[in-house]
Amino acid sequence: MESLPEYMSPSAFVLLDKLPMLTNGKVNRKALPPPDQLLRRPGGEYIAPRNEIESTVAGVFAEVLGVDQVGAEDNFFSLGGHSLLAMQVVSRILEKLKVELPVQTLFERPTVGAVSRFIASDGSGWAESPGPITRVNRLVEEELLERLDRLADEEVDELLRDVAGEERGGQ
Questions:
Q1: What is the radius of gyration, based on Cα positions, of the chain?
Q2: Domain ranges within the chain, ordered by starting residue
């Protein structure tokens, strides 16, 4: 491969006369100036979100990236996103839109519009309705885990066989 994928390329370049250094000789990253906002939107033109899903996704991008405004065609990685922030985006989209967005989708479709189209497309991005295991309050979860820890191996095996039988419709 002769060039880096887009998501691995730097999102902005800032020219400095001299790097700020710490006394131990390392670069003082906290003293580095933030990239200019104009450098963060490669196309330069802001396109407002066109629907409710795009507005929500743009809001999530802006919140996670710490930028004021994200447009419909803005690229998550060009705005300074990276894999750890991508995980936050996926989590917040699940929280706000109740949609399970695979993190790989954000790498493959890094713009607000592309992510929104994935979410809206034929239900492929929508979270399934909860099955037999649903989210409960933390105290109940902790109590259930403690009870499971106290079970003997034979009791756990029996419970697993019962659950498997129920899933097959046998019991």
A1: 23
A2: 6-120, 138-167
In the block, residue with structure tokens 């705005």: 79
Q: Measured between alpha carbons, how far is residue 95 from residues 99, 119, 144 in Å?
A: 8, 14, 24
Q: Are 64 and 85 in contact (CB under 8 A)?
A: yes
Let me know how many helices (H) and strands (E) the chain has, helices first.
Answer: 7, 0
57 sits in which H/E element: helix 52-65
Q: And the tokens for 134? A: 């649903």
Q: Report the predicted TM-score, pTM, of the whole model to 2 decimal places.
A: 0.53
pLDDT tens-place string over residues 60-102? 999 999 888 899 999 998 888 888 899 999 999 999 988 888 8
Q: What is the CATH number of domain 6-120?
A: 1.10.1200.10
Q: Which helix (H) or strand (E) is 142 found in, with range?
A: helix 138-150
3-state secondary structure (DSSP) of residue 75: strand
Q: Note the pLDDT tens digit of each residue in 36-69.
A: 544 445 556 788 999 999 999 999 999 999 888 8
Other beta carbons within 10 Å of 68: 7
Give me the amino acid identity at 64.
V
Structure tokens at 45: 């033109």
